[in-house]
């Protein structure tokens, strides 16, 4: 029997698994470009003036996502930092600000902005800034700029922190005083209340400008000077401000000034009215001459031109004004005086130009050098040393006027050094004639205007022989101008012999002279004429004299002929 077939056993293959990948949900968030600034780290809501603080600003898109690509500049303004604003460049979309500062005690909101296009700014939350601890005094309400002498006035002071904010928490007092001298009367010590010290009933008696009030308080720096001007009170008295001398010359004018003052001695500039003056003397001969009334201007009345004509002692002047007590001056002594000397107070210049006007001033003085304004007579100036033998032109005699004789338009025409002048005067008021000392004057040539033949050629020259001609550049008065720097040209204007004109025909001026040497004419003849010219100079009459004759040159001698002897011929 065939073997029984073994049943075939098949191993089933593993079941086929179906795999599905496991995918977690992914939230995709896309950040758009920044469109707004947002305060993400705000400053404190309350801080002390001058305290540094920080804040952060993010550049976000419309969905509130930080745009990390944003690197623009962000500016916070409204600060007390220098310039009032701080700018920071954003890093990864965030601008961090530190050491920001607010100095003014107040409720403040900061502005945040950027220059980046399309990004809007924002504001910080409100910040309450409180005053810091008081460090110094400030003036809250100053006194009037101008007060009246003796009248009361007031002011308000405050204790302030370093930034000028009033600090209400300190107790104590404040004291006011004048800096640089002076006395301030009234309520000068006042306690603080809520940081303020109102001061009333202050006063000053002395009128003036430039006063400075200073306030002081313990532990606080004082105020700077507070300017104050004090004007005078009403007029109540007179005071001599400019007295006549204790001794005056008979007939000579003198003056007197009187000020109108208030009860404190301040000049009252607003007083209007006239002053009157009169004289009295024990000799009863004290007639006062001159203007006897004077208007008051700026609080002062000034008498000028007063005079007492009689010599004596113990003269006094009485001044009166409407509504004021009269005033008597100190005694005066009147003496006679005479002029003792003449003095050149304004001498002529050391160098004058020929023909140009000059002047001088001569004063009639007493022995002390005072000009006697009433000295009569005239004074004459004259040359005492005259090296050029010139005449003194102009008015050489002038009258005295208020003690001075003024000369103008004096002239001298001839240039030379070493002139000397003197002024002489005689008068019925002087016992003898008087003269000044000698004063020197040098006269210099003026600008050249004419060309002159200073050294013409000889009337006759030999043909071919050298001769010389000197020309000068002179001013209108015949003085050689040493500063002239032009040149002169020579030419034959008449050449009867048809000769050749030799030598240098153009010469420059040196010290005002142009010297032509080595001139020659080659052919004899009668009536040769030279023509001289120089640009800018007019020919003088002397140039018409440049006519000369040329004689033939001596014939050259020939050697004697040699004699031939018979022997030599044979």
* Relative strand content: over 45%
Structure summary, number of beta strands? 48
Query: Which term fits the overall shape?
Result: flat
Rounded radius of gyration (Å): 55 Å
N- and C-termini, Cα separation: 207 Å
- Could you list the spans in which at least 5 consecutive residues all have pLDDT below 50? 1-23, 565-570
The overall pLDDT, averaged over residues, is 87
Class per helix and strand makeup = mainly beta
What percentage of residues falls in helices of 4 or more residues?
Answer: under 10%
Largest sheet: 10 strands, mixed
Number of helices: 1
Write a structural description.
By secondary structure, the protein is mainly β. The strands form 10 sheets. Strands 20, 21, 22, 23, 24, 25, 26, 27, 28 and 29 form a 10-stranded mixed sheet that branches.
SSE arrangement:
Elements: E1 36-41, E2 46-48, E3 52-60, E4 73-77, E5 85-89, E6 94-101, E7 107-108, E8 111-114, E9 122-123, E10 127-130, E11 136-141, E12 146-148, E13 153-160, E14 173-178, E15 185-186, E16 189-191, E17 196-203, E18 208-216, E19 226-231, E20 237-242, E21 247-249, E22 254-261, E23 274-280, E24 288-289, E25 293-297, E26 300-308, E27 312-321, E28 324-328, E29 332-335, E30 341-346, E31 351-353, E32 358-365, E33 378-385, E34 397-399, E35 404-410, E36 416-426, E37 434-435, E38 439-444, E39 450-455, E40 460-462, E41 467-474, E42 487-494, E43 501-502, E44 506-508, E45 513-521, E46 525-533, E47 538-539, E48 547-551, H1 566-569
Parallel strand pairs: 2-10, 12-19, 21-29, 31-38, 39-47, 40-48
Antiparallel strand pairs: 1-3, 3-6, 4-5, 4-8, 7-10, 8-9, 11-13, 13-17, 14-16, 14-18, 15-17, 18-19, 20-22, 22-26, 23-25, 23-27, 24-26, 25-26, 27-28, 27-29, 30-32, 32-35, 33-34, 33-36, 36-37, 36-38, 39-41, 41-45, 42-44, 42-46, 43-45, 46-48
């Amino acid at each position: 029997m065939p073997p029984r077939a073994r049943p075939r056993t098949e191993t089933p293959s593993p079941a086929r698994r179906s795999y599905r990948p496991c995918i977690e949900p992914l939230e995709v968030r896309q950040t758009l470009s920044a469109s707004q600034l947002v305060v993400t780290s705000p400053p404190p809501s309350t801080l002390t003036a001058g305290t540094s603080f920080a804040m952060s600003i993010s550049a976000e898109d419309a969905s509130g996502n930080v745009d990390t690509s944003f690197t623009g500049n962000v500016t916070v303004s409204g600060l007390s930092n220098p310039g009032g604003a701080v700018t920071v460049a954003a890093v990864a979309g965030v601008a961090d600000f530190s050491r920001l500062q607010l100095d003014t005690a107040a409720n403040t909101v900061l502005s945040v902005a950027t220059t980046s296009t399309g990004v809007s700014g924002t504001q910080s939350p409100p910040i309450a800034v409180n005053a810091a601890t008081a460090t110094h005094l400030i003036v809250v309400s100053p006194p009037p700029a101008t007060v009246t002498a003796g009248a009361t006035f007031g002011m308000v002071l405050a204790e302030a922190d370093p930034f000028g904010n009033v600090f209400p928490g300190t107790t104590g007092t404040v004291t006011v005083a004048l800096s640089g001298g002076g006395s301030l009367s009234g309520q000068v010590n006042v306690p603080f209340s809520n940081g303020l010290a109102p001061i009333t009933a202050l006063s000053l008696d002395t009128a003036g400008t430039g006063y400075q009030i200073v306030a002081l308080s313990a532990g606080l720096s004082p105020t700077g000077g507070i300017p104050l001007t004090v004007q005078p009170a009403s007029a109540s008295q007179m005071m001599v401000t400019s007295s006549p001398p204790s001794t005056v010359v008979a007939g000579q004018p003198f003056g007197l000034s009187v000020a109108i003052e208030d009860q404190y001695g301040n000049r009252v500039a607003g007083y209007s009215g006239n002053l009157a003056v009169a004289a009295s003397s024990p000799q009863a001969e004290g007639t006062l001459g001159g203007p006897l009334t004077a208007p008051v201007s700026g609080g002062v009345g000034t008498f000028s031109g007063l005079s007492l004509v009689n010599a004596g002692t113990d003269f006094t002047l009485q001044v009166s004004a409407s509504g004021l007590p009269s005033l008597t001056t100190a005694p005066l002594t009147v003496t006679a005086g005479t002029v003792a000397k003449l003095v050149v107070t304004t001498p002529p210049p050391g160098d004058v130009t020929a023909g140009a006007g000059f002047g001088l001033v001569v004063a009639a003085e007493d022995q002390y050098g005072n000009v006697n304004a009433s000295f009569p007579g005239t004074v004459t100036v004259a040359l005492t040393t005259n090296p050029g033998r010139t005449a003194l032109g102009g008015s050489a005699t002038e009258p005295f006027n208020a003690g001075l004789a003024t000369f103008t338009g004096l002239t001298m025409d001839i240039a030379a050094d070493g002139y000397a002048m003197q002024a002489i005067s005689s008068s019925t008021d002087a016992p003898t004639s008087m003269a000044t000392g000698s004063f020197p004057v040098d006269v210099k040539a003026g600008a050249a205007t004419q060309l002159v033949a200073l050294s013409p050629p000889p009337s006759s020259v030999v043909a071919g022989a050298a001769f010389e001609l000197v020309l000068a550049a002179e001013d209108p008065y015949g003085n050689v101008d040493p500063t002239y720097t032009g040149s002169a040209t020579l030419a034959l204007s008449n050449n009867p012999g048809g000769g050749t004109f030799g030598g240098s025909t153009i010469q420059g001026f040196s010290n005002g002279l142009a010297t032509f040497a080595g001139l020659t004419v080659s052919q004899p003849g009668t009536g040769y004429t030279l023509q001289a010219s120089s640009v800018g100079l007019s020919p003088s009459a002397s140039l018409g004299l440049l006519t000369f004759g040329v004689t033939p040159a001596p014939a050259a001698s020939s050697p004697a002929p040699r004699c031939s002897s018979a022997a030599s011929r044979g």
